[in-house]
Amino acid sequence: MIHRSSLWLLILLVVNGVWLGSAQVPFPGKCPDVKVVDPFDVEEYLGVWYEYAKYPFSFEIGRKCISATYGLLDESTVSVLNAGISQLTGQPSNITGTAKLLGPGQLAVEFFPGQPQTEPNYLVLGTDYESYAVVYSCTSVTPFANLKLVWILTRERVPSTETIDKAEKILVDNNISQAPLVQTAQKNCSEQ
Ligand SMILES: *[C@@H]1O[C@H](CO)[C@@H](O)[C@H](O)[C@H]1NC(C)=O
Ligand SMILES: *[C@@H]1O[C@H](CO)[C@@H](O)[C@H](O)[C@H]1NC(C)=O
Ligand SMILES: *[C@@H]1O[C@H](CO)[C@@H](O)[C@H](O)[C@H]1NC(C)=O
Question: Which helix (H) or strand (E) holds 83?
Answer without folding.
Answer: strand 77-86
